[in-house]
């Protein structure tokens, strides 16, 4: 008599644990950092190498405007964009500097693919600085949604920082 009861209880637990195996975790959110607008020189064709068809667009200037910082873009760096003509894919590989209105220098890298609409790009963003006021940029994870002038004289990237979700519990600083 007791066996079916136990079996029912165990299978009930199993069902519950399977149902809870992949609960949707709390989603992070994105906060708007600002929009980077880079003006670009005409491309220099590196040509088709082992990784694809690479073209270099030198940065001639630009600006970053947004709620958390504003900056000018000095004429250094560029986009070493990589095309794969055989698979129709294109990837941004950009490096740039931001000179903030309050005097910090930030080194930025953006990398990621063009989307199916052939207009937008989705990029992973890394920023780096030694300026104490902008120490937070070294710790952020951020993404960019870019679009370009059809003549590729400029490219504008809306940048978003990943926020949360906040975790409970004890952590420790990792070395
Ligand atoms: C980016 O800058 C260029 C040159 O100043 C300007 O013509 C263009 O409208 C800007 N693009 C965006 C999306 O703000």
UniProtKB/TrEMBL annotation:
Position of the signal peptide: 1-21
For this UniProt record, the keywords arranged alphabetically read as follows: Signal
Per the UniProt record, the lineage of the source organism begins with: Eukaryota, Fungi, Dikarya, Ascomycota, Pezizomycotina
PANTHER family associated with the record: UPF0311 PROTEIN BLR7842 (PTHR37315)
| Protein's recorded name | Uncharacterized protein
């Amino acid at each position: 008599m007791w066996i079916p009861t136990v079996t029912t209880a165990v299978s009930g637990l199993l069902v519950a644990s399977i149902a809870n195996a992949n609960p949707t975790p709390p989603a992070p959110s994105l906060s708007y950092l600002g929009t980077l607008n880079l003006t670009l020189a005409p491309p220099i064709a590196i040509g088709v190498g082992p990784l694809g068809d690479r073209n270099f667009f030198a940065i001639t200037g630009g600006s970053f405007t947004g709620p958390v910082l504003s900056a000018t873009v000095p004429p250094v760096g560029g986009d070493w964009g990589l095309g794969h003509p055989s698979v129709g894919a294109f990837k941004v590989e950009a490096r740039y500097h931001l000179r903030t209105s309050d005097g910090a220098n930030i080194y930025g890298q953006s990398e990621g693919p063009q989307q199916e609409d052939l207009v937008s790009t989705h990029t992973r963003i890394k920023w780096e600085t030694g300026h104490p006021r902008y120490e937070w940029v070294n710790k952020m994870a951020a993404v960019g949604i870019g679009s370009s002038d059809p003549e590729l004289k400029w490219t504008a990237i809306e940048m978003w920082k990943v926020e949360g979700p906040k975790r409970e519990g004890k952590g420790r600083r990792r070395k």
